[in-house]
């Protein structure tokens, strides 16, 4: 039986070098749906732990309310899971609207893998933060860019699209829809401040 560690390391490297091939490789694993949901739960918990650790070293006046929610033991995990499910749903169903053949189960798997990569990047960022804070900020922007770049390639691989520019445009449109949905959820949770009337 192959050890999981070397497989993960190889898949991380493969993802950064050839993201579309890596996406197809992930899909070809044909993991059961239970494993995909378990993976979603695990990355959400890891992201929560990293957020809580980051808040320990952040001045209280810089701790936005949204970070407090993400660090909450109950709301944080639920919010992370819901956010990733929404992204996977948009990735699958918007792509199908434009003629893609991808399904939600595979989109969920790819999004879980992307979130896992983000947790790795955030771990590196926290380590660098103690040595060179400005560099940690650059790593945060690089991680965001990596996420968007990989998401575009993964979406193209999921649906068999060739034109990456069209995929990116679809991502931008979906992004605004997702932000609107999450803003409503945050407002319902009391995280966003009420809009003051002029």
UniProtKB/TrEMBL annotation:
Pfam families: Yip1
Compartment list: Membrane
Spans through the membrane: 37-57, 77-95, 107-132, 138-161, 168-192
Keyword annotations: Membrane, Transmembrane, Transmembrane helix
Membrane protein topology class: Multi-pass membrane protein
Keyword Transmembrane helix assigned: yes
Ranges of residues in domain Yip1: 14-184
Lineage top rank: taxon: Bacteria
Protein name: YIP1 family protein
Origin species: Albidovulum salinarum
